[in-house]
Fold this protein.
Amino acid sequence: MSERSERLLRDVGGIREQWVEEAEEEETAPRKKKGGWKRFAALAACLALVILGAGVLTGRIPLPGVGGGGGLGVNVNREPLSYMNYAGPVLPLTLAEANDAITAQREVTLDFQPWVPTWKSVEDMLSERTFQTEEGRQRVLESLREQYPDGGEWETSSSILVQDTNRLHNTSGEDQTVTVLYPFISSLDDLADTGLPSLTLDGQLLDPEVRFGRVSAALPEEDPDDGRLENFGLYLLDSWDDYEELLRDGSYLSGALEFRPEPSGTAFLYTVSLDSEPEMPEESSQKPQLNLRFRVNQDQTAVWTLGSNSRSLDPESGTMEIRGISPVPLLVLGDDIQDLEVECQARVGEEWQTVEAEISVERREAAAEEILRELAEEEYAYKVPPAVGERGMPFDLYYDLFLDGLEFGLRYEEGSFSPGSYGMERVFFLMAEVTIPAESSVELTAVLEMPGSYDYECGTRDGRGSYGYDLATRVGSVLEFTDQTGILEDRGQIEIVSQNYGFNLKKGIREVPLTEDRYWLVVRRAPEAEVK
Amino acid sequence: MEDAAIVSLYWARDPAAVSATQEKYGGACQQLAAGLLGSVEDGEECLNDALHRLWETIPPKRPESLKGYLKKIVRNLAIDRWRSRRAAFRGSGLETLALELEECCPGLPRMPSAEEAVEGKETAAAIDRWLETLPREDRILFVRRYWYGDALEDLALRRGMKRNALSQKLHRLRGSLRRHLEKEGITV
């Protein structure tokens, strides 16, 4: 370990007491299962982080579409098998429109290959640190060699590879061209990390369009009230019931297919900053703050700023106040703000006092499309690793997700705005047009990495925990499946804890017919496969 | 007993101060040290050392927050213990935290050790300024991870996030801190 990082670790100990106390609250907060407050948090994000006239939420501002998607209630998880961290089920292929002439045979392979330990050397670990200077990398290398005297460690994953093969058969005497949609569950965060699943047609790699369900489509209809406004854990879908309800009537898919965000109108970017440090009263121990006051057309304007800035809106006069540390950024969509006044203030005791300061206001006006695209490009370059890149996470998809995320407010970090819905799970669809010749078949195969669902108490920390993998056979699909088969590639890595598939490793039963709507498989690492 | 009353006991050199402190804050502080070091026994010893240090330093000190002062001592003692017996704590929480924080160390020449004490305060103040710019939930996340040493799994669970997503978020925060320290000319 380098002296520098050790010193930094110690120096962190010298931060202000108020931050330590602020964080202490979390320690004493009761631990909850996913659900409950987090659903509220999603809604709260609209309320707490998006400071606005009501225009965007009511859909009156012609910017990235909001208000569609049909808010669905999300049930409390009632399943006997539930997880604190639910990754969702593998979902079945569907078509954009039902077609009586098409039938499907499905074969789903659950491959535990990622569970097979692989050796990761310290050089491999170092290669991930492309962001560091050469000097920093050398320091890390020394530290890693010290920490891993064997030169590395065995790594395993709790994800599995799913190969979902669908043989589509055209029973009619005419060629049939259909739009296939392969659904999978992910989040912008996860996609930026792993990239998209692959989709092949008769072995040929396709380049499908990607569509996704709106954030709003999974919001509860009623306002929950458990009061965790400040938390931003945007996870709404966390049980089989949630996904089943979301996909059951096809409206979520319809919303995904209709959603093509096209921002229009004008955007304004403001940066308000101090040109130099003002002379502060001796009694003031805090940094000076900028206090911005302006009028806003509440029906036509939305204003975003740094999440930690305080803000208030007087709905009667339409006057908004924002207070923050220089520089204070503002993104304005819709009508421009009016009568901007800025003061520099110092806190003395309980009061704010105005102090003399040189303040500059930069303002940029451009088409919303131009500004939002630039913001998204900055984010994309920052967020998507080169290894994933354009193939794994196309910019157009990222941009659409970015625009959808506007609904949940933007956050300001690293000089750019980013949507608050990065981590929110939703259902994506790989979409492609496929022609199936008369009385013939084609084979469509999706390969995706599926993370395990787990309960914290099961103990993932020591690698001995149980992980669950769910599979849906029909939900959300208009295809007529003539038969479905489940195949287990256990790779000698697992023992089965519980299931309803009918696999039997001892008897060598690794292939079973699937007739139920839902299948679950809970496994843990086999003792003989433990990494010593 | 109120903190002010306990501090008064220290000033009066009344040994009841120590038992009152232990009763009020002992559990949380021991847990903090044990979490950082990955050892319950070492957590206990850290707490005992911290109580001793409290007795030695009050008076002359009169901390505004007894709890905050004690926790800071415990954290520093845990780091000292880890540094002096590194091999015994291989793989401990502190080792992992230090390795993660390596990403935040700007690639500038190292300052002479004589200036370390002053520099440490400057670094903490620079980190304070950076923390001020963060959304509250990001600030809490950073402090929980690098001040309290919370495990990634705990942090992910409390936020309803996947561990990988949380790791990414922390990675972004560390990158942000590194750039901030560079901007402020801090030579960690």
The mean pLDDT of chain A is 78. Chain A touches chain B through 67 residues (CB under 8 Å).
